[in-house]
């Protein structure tokens, strides 16, 4: 499904957070949204799934206004993994994943065979099957993030929104989470839209980049063309340089 933002504006009191944001998110592709802190990236992500309904302009899904869809229908198509999330203290990983099935159930309907298959698939994809009976609160940061990712995948959305999915994780767990997301896109064709703060993650793990600065679109396009040392200096107002790592991959690094 094609998700698009058309002239999106968001304002809190006198402060304009987003100003006329217009962009398309290609179906079955990975799009990274990047930009400085406070640029409006997370706000845009919440608008795309109507977690924030206080906006002007339109969000469209296959050309139709998303506001005309019910909350249940939206949740069947779009899932979001926000930065801040909480589960009851004694929730197990499997129970958490099962929460992702709520949009697909009728009121008072018990767990179906389809629910069970979806949850088992999500735990398998996120490498959490061996943790199914563990309490989420007992997990490490990286394990906990994979558990929450399993919940969103159990929702079986066509479009997955991720708000800085590697925040607070060490390098190994960052790569683990990014590889899982990459595999979901590659193997199952899920459209991925991620707010990322790591420039090189955006260059490596996305097909398209949307750069937001000051609440406006600064640039869009192919990651390696958009995220050059020169553009990074303009976006983040720091000096930057490029280098090639031992695998032959070009990286951009902020420097003094």
Break the fold down into its secondary structure elements and pairings.
Layout: E1 3-12, E2 15-25, E3 30-34, H1 41-48, E4 56-61, E5 64-65, H2 71-77, E6 78-81, H3 93-99, H4 113-125, H5 141-154, E7 159-163, H6 171-188, E8 191-195, H7 199-204, E9 208-213, E10 216-221, H8 223-226, H9 229-236, E11 239-244, E12 250-255
Parallel strand pairs: 3-8, 3-9, 6-7, 7-8
Antiparallel strand pairs: 1-2, 1-4, 4-5, 9-10, 11-12
The counted number of beta strands is 12
Tally of individual domains: 1
CATH fold description: Rossmann fold
Q: How much beta, percentage-wise? A: 25-35%
End-to-end Cα distance, whole Å, is 43 Å
The CATH architecture assignment turns out to be 3-Layer(aba) Sandwich
The radius of gyration computed from the alpha-carbon positions, rounded to a whole number of angstroms, is: 19 Å
Largest sheet, strands/sense/barrel: 6 strands, mixed
